[in-house]
Amino acid sequence: MGLFKKIFSKEKKEKLDQGLEKSKSNFFSKLGKAVAGKSKVDDDVLDDLEEVLISSDVGVSTTIKIIRRIEDRVAKDKYLGTEELNAILREEIASLLSETEDDNLTKKPELGHPHVIMVVGVNGVGKTTTIGKLANQFKNQGKKVVLGAGDTFRAAAIDQLQIWADRVDVPMIKQQMGSDPASVAFDTVQSAVKQNADVVLLDTAGRLHNKVNLMKELTKVKRVMQKVIPSAPHEVLLVLDGSTGQNAFEQAKQFSAATEVTALAITKLDGTAKGGVVIGISDQLQVPVKYIGVGEGIDDLQDFNKIEFVDSFFNQ
């Protein structure tokens, strides 16, 4: 098995395989057409492969890196058959993504102090659901979790988060719709400290109509939390909808300009053929992918592992 050793549980790996099925089928359908009737990986095949990768939402920059790596392999090995292309792609993409592996991503919040995660993202990307699933994960690890309903601009956002709080059976701090989000943030971290909580998950408004206003709002939220916990937030998690493909790139860039995003969660991969966007985002942005959503179940938000992802994507 080598590089692709099994590190997930069998159930999680099967769910990951299922979640990437549409993306994988779409990719290999295009790849099959690109190499049909050709036996050697030559310039024409590489040109077609470039189109396949870009149209699979891998992104131009990452696609160019992958093509260059394969060109180097072709130059070194002199002859590479098209039947070897799948294995080569798998190896080179895994190698490319592993170069930016962040060992800190596997570390879980430590017990004994509130680890504050501020969750950002536009409306509709699955932000509230992601918070609920994370709350469930942390609780199952034996951690005490507090939720904060900082998206005060939509009554539905507060109600949806309350549903998750009730479902996972964790406390949630909220105020009336239209309240100052920073006030909710302050109350949340203050309550978490009093409850001796381990993890705080703070929702924020899902708006991106004006980067200046967004930046001011998120900066204010951070500032008031730091009155209670000087190091807060410890993470800023940006949630992106994988089914939007290249639009997810743009959202990531805009939010990164508005606040210091430290990690990404990419959702809804099970319902799309655009799973290649994870490869591109993981490579191009200086922000690591930490979680991926591969189903609607409460346990279907998985820790992102680049090797397992590539293994599932290229496993036929």
Description:
With 316 residues, this protein is α/β, with parallel strands linked by helices. It has 2 domains: 8-98, Four Helix Bundle (Hemerythrin (Met), subunit A); 109-314, Rossmann fold (3-Layer(aba) Sandwich). The protein is 50% helix and 12% strand. The chain contains 12 helices and 8 strands. It has helices spanning 10-19, 21-35, 43-55, 60-77, 85-98, 127-140, 155-168, 181-194, 211-225, 246-258, 276-284, 306-314; strands spanning 115-120, 145-149, 172-173, 199-203, 235-241, 263-267, 289-293, 301-303. It has an 8-stranded mixed beta sheet with strand order 3-2-4-1-5-6-7-8, sandwiched between helices. α3 (43-55) runs antiparallel to α4 (60-77). The longest helix is centred in the first third of the chain and has 18 residues, at 60-77. The two termini are 15 Å apart. Residues 288-301 form the SRP54-type proteins GTP-binding domain. GTP binds at residues 121-128, 203-207, 267-270.
Question: What would you say about this model in short?
Answer:
The protein is an alpha/beta fold.
- CATH topology grouping of the largest domain: Rossmann fold
Return the structural class: alpha/beta
> In percent, how much strand structure appears in the residues?
5-15%
Helix content, binned percent: 40-55%
Give me the number of helical elements.
Answer: 12
The coarse silhouette is elongated
The helix/strand series, from N terminus to C terminus, equals: HHHHHEHEHEHEHEHEHEEH
- Low-pLDDT runs of 5+ residues are 1-7, 103-107
Protein name: Signal recognition particle receptor FtsY
Binding site for GTP: 121-128, 203-207, 267-270
Organism: Psychroflexus salis
Subcellular location: Cell membrane; Cytoplasm
